[in-house]
């Protein structure tokens, strides 16, 4: 570490000699190219009135820390602009606090602000009397830093996956197809109808349905729920085998090239299949990126319709294409507005309308719609584990808001918010669960069984993998969860071994060779991540399928970064009985197929 | 006496000319940046349009209930409103004295001007105190912010005293300050009113096109 005084002197000398690190130089060169009239307007128009201060959840949860104030954060970008592009700042920099960047450390400090202290939720923007849209130029600053490789590690990993593999969770094409086939078979079996399928790459359809890779990896139920709804609505639809990920990390990283490339893949897939409409599953940033920003990044004038599945489902219900019985959703529900949907795409009335058609007890949270608070997991924050503590602290605002509703479920139309809210609920020990509209609508469906009742032509359906005779090792340091998991699995025929720490799990795995291991990630002593790596590297245990069950979604990235085969299954806590069984069966089924 | 006349007429005209030239240069500079476009079809409910968004955005400042930030701090909003009324009247005064002095013989008008500009001066003092005492305000303030606010508050003080158009040193100071103010404004944060129509236009355009503006009324909690 350099002595602070010396560091200051070095920076002053660099400033005097106009010397810069290579990265700082590149950032400045690219700064000008990123400017447009809206951004310049926002950079020059702030009057430092402080009106936006209390609008930011970071400020509210960190009283007294001025570095969280939106205008303060904005000024860290604005001062560079003033120093180089604004006349007063160029002539009298100290007068307007204009300052350039000289070192990589300056850029690192900026990174901490633009990635770690703002979720780009735009709440301050709608509260600025001058119309300063800080979130937009914060994204621009992110893009500048990303262009010189300065970004949180999680952002680098996810961006790389989206560039190289085509989706932000690195799901391989064969895993995607296999999961869809598995879900399709289940649906066919459930409906006893060979037409109850998930069509892949079907051409000339009315709807091309795209999803968030999280659904494939951690929440396949949302896909089967959507498929059931399409089936009941007799929709002509398909899912593309490429270009199926409508999420877009370019929105978070500020990288317009990535944004354009990713959105472009989805548009191309829709055109290739000659789909009439591109429908996006419930995901706030995915919807915003594909529906609202993508055409601009990709410079593509879209020639087909695009809509959120929320609107599709609402149309089905209102037009009578599907029937739902709201009494099936008999708990209490509130609605969290994803800020990308609400503030940036005006989608806040339709989800409420649908929710009120699907449940009896709906309780509005306050503030709501475009004034709702961010789930605090936005702007890619869920992938930036270095800022998790800060994120969870700032989530106090959301937690209080949720608690005040007294609802048992918070419904949201955003997969990112599902993860963010799940974390908030866990951290603040709220008696609440997160769900999405697709789950509620599917649950309330009044299903018309139109399967072909012809037993003489047996349909070849594979039964769901039975747990009977399966030996499952469950590992978790929470005794209550261990008991719950054991009971669920034993009730379904499995014989269960339990371990409350990593060492015990390794010992039992070697001695008992179970058919499946479930693993918690954060345990005292050897962590789940270390345990997983050891199990994978040991020849005797390497082929045992592992299903991660964790309450720390931010650690997800760490496990996929290990230089070993990734886990076969992954479940976020809190999880209910059905969730466990679906995922355990899926994990065993995938292995079975291999 | 000659200098007083020069300060009230020629000096103001020169200062106004300089301000106009600098403003034109500034606008040219702003307009040279390309405006970002929205290629996608619009989103939001059918009643929301780009045009409505722009109008709503411009009108926003006159609707303190429209934004949480002004709703929650109505007193600050009132300060803002009266401060800007004071600015308008103090500028108007610099035209009335040299070009329509007759109007300042109407005592009601003189009293009204003095009340409003005087109120703006008091608000200016409150604003200075807030900027100095509030930790968050200090963190976002620059020397220009302090100077501009002090300059305006002092200007209001001399303007209040100059309303009766009695001439003399106070009035001379008021006109010298006005001239300085006109030349300084384009280089300071006070020029925000030049940007205001642009920023609000573009923000309203985006938000209207996306269906967010006009904002929906939010029902406050029951109890
Ligand atoms: S409300 Fe707007 S003008 Fe006021 S400090 Fe915040 S960004 Fe600047
Ligand atoms: S965009 Fe959201 S998180 Fe960022 S400063 Fe504004 S209110 Fe805070
Ligand atoms: S995660 Fe949801 S609430 Fe949070 S920023 Fe994204 S869309 Fe907004």
What does this protein look like?
The complex is a heterodimer of chains A (594) and B (223). Chain A is α/β, with parallel strands linked by helices and 594 residues long. Chain A has helices at residues 4-16, 22-34, 37-45, 57-61, 70-85, 87-91, 104-114, 134-147, 153-164, 173-191, 213-217, 220-232, 249-253, 256-272, 284-298, 309-319, 339-345, 349-358, 388-394, 396-405, 415-427, 437-444, 479-491, 502-512, 528-537, 556-561, 577-593; strands spanning 207-210, 237-238, 277-280, 305-308, 332-336, 361-363, 409-412, 433-435, 471-475, 495-499, 516-519, 546-550, 569-572. Chain A has four domains: 4-150, Fumarate Reductase Iron-sulfur Protein, Chain B, domain 2 (Orthogonal Bundle); 160-318, 3-Layer(aba) Sandwich (Rossmann fold), CATH 3.40.50; 327-444, Rossmann fold, CATH 3.40.50; 471-593, Response regulator (Rossmann fold). Residues 454-462 of chain A have low confidence and may be disordered. With 223 residues, chain B is mainly alpha-helical. Helices cover 70% and strands 0% of the residues of chain B. In chain B, α3 packs antiparallel against α10 (192-209), α5 (74-99) packs across α8 (143-162) and α8 (143-162) runs antiparallel to α9. Chain B is globular and about 65 Å long. Chain B starts with a helix and ends in a 14-residue tail after the last helix. Chains A and B meet through α3, α5, α15 and α17 of A and α4, α7, α8 and α10 of B. The complex binds iron/sulfur cluster (SF4) (3 copies). One iron/sulfur cluster binds next to α15, α17 and α21 of chain A.
Q: How many helix segments of chain A?
A: 27
Highest-level CATH class of chain B: Mainly Alpha
Order of helices and strands of chain B: HHHHHHHHHH
Return the CATH topology of chain B. Fumarate Reductase Cytochrome B subunit
């Amino acid at each position: 570490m350099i002595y602070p005084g010396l560091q200051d002197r070095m920076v002053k000398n660099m400033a005097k000699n106009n010397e810069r690190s290579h990265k700082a130089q590149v950032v400045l060169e690219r700064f000008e190219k990123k400017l447009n009239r809206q951004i310049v307007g926002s950079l020059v128009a702030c009057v430092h009135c402080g009106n936006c201060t209390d609008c930011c959840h970071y400020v509210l949860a960190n009283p007294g820390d001025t570095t969280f104030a939106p205008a303060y954060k904005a000024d860290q970008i604005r001062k560079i602009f003033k120093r180089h592009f604004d006349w007063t700042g160029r002539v009298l920099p100290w007068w307007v606090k204009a300052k350039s960047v000289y070192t990589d450390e300056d850029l690192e400090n900026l990174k901490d602000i633009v990635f770690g202290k703002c979720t780009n939720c735009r709440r301050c923007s709608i509260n600025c009397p001058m119309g300063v849209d800080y979130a937009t130029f914060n994204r621009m600053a992110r893009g500048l830093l990303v262009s010189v490789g300065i970004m949180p590690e999680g952002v680098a990993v996810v961006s790389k996956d989206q560039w190289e593999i085509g989706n932000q969770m690195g799901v391989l094409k064969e895993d995607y197809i296999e999961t869809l086939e598995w879900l399709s078979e289940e649906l066919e079996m459930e409906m006893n109808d060979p037409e109850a399928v998930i069509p892949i790459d079907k051409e000339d359809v009315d709807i091309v349905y795209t999803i968030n890779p999280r659904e494939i990896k951690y929440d396949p139920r949302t896909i089967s729920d959507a498929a059931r709804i399409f089936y009941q609505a007799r929709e002509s639809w398909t899912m593309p085998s490429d270009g199926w990920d409508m999420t877009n990390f370019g929105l978070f990283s500020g990288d317009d090239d990535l944004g354009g490339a990713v959105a472009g893949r989805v548009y191309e897939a829709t055109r290739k299949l000659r789909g009439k409409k591109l429908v996006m599953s419930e995901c706030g940033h995915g919807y915003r990126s594909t529906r609202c920003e993508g055409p601009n990044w990709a410079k593509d004038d879209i020639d087909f319709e695009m809509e959120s599945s929320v609107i599709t489902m609402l149309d089905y219900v209102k037009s009578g294409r599907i029937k739902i019985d709201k009494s099936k959703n008999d708990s209490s529900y509130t609605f969290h507005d994803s800020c990308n949907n609400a503030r940036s795409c005006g989608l806040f009335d339709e989800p409420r309308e649908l929710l009120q058609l699907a449940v009896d007890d709906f309780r509005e949270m306050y503030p709501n719609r475009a004034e709702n608070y961010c789930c605090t997991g936005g702007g890619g924050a869920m992938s930036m584990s270095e800022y998790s503590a800060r994120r969870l602290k700032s989530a106090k605002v959301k937690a209080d808001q949720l608690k005040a509703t007294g609802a048992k479920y918070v419904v949201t139309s955003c997969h990112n918010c599902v993860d963010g809210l799940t974390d908030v609920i866990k951290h603040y020990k709220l008696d609440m669960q997160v769900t999405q509209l697709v789950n509620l609508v599917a649950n309330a469906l009044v299903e018309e069984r139109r399967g072909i009742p012809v037993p003489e032509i047996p349909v070849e359906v594979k039964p769901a993998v039975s747990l009977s005779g399966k030996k499952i090792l469950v590992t978790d340091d929470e005794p209550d969860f261990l008991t719950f998991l054991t009971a669920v699995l034993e009730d379904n025929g499995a014989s269960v071994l339990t371990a409350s720490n990593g060492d015990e799990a390794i010992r039992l795995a070697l001695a008992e060779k179970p058919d499946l291991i479930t693993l918690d990630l954060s345990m005292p002593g050897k962590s789940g991540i270390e345990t997983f790596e050891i199990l994978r590297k040991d020849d005797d245990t390497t082929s045992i399928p592992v299903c991660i069950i964790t309450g720390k979604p931010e650690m997800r990235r760490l496990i996929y970064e290990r230089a070993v085969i990734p886990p076969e299954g992954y479940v976020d806590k809190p999880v209910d009985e059905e969730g466990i069984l679906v995922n355990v069966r899926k994990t065993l089924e995938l292995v079975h197929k291999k | 006496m000659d200098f007083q006349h020069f300060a009230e007429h020629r000096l103001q005209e020169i200062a106004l000319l300089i301000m106009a030239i600098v403003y034109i240069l500034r606008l040219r500079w702003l307009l040279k940046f390309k405006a970002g476009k929205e290629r996608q079809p619009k989103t939001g409910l059918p009643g929301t349009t780009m045009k409505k968004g722009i109008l709503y955005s411009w009108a926003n400042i006159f609707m303190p209930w429209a934004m949480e930030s002004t709703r929650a701090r109505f007193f600050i909003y009132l300060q803002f409103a009266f401060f800007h009324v004071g600015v308008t009247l103090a500028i108007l005064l610099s035209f009335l004295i040299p070009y329509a002095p007759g109007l300042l013989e109407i005592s009601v008008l003189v009293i009204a001007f003095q009340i409003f500009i005087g109120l703006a001066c008091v608000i200016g003092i409150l604003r200075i105190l807030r900027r100095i005492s509030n930790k968050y305000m200090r963190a976002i303030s620059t020397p220009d912010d302090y100077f501009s606010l002090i300059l305006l508050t002092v200007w209001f003080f001399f303007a209040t005293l100059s309303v009766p158009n009695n001439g003399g040193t106070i009035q001379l100071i008021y006109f010298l300050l006005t001239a300085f103010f006109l030349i300084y404004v384009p280089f300071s944060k006070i020029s925000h009113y030049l940007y205001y129509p642009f920023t609000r236009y573009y923000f309203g355009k985006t938000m209207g096109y996306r269906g967010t503006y006009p904002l929906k009324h939010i029902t406050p909690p029951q109890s």
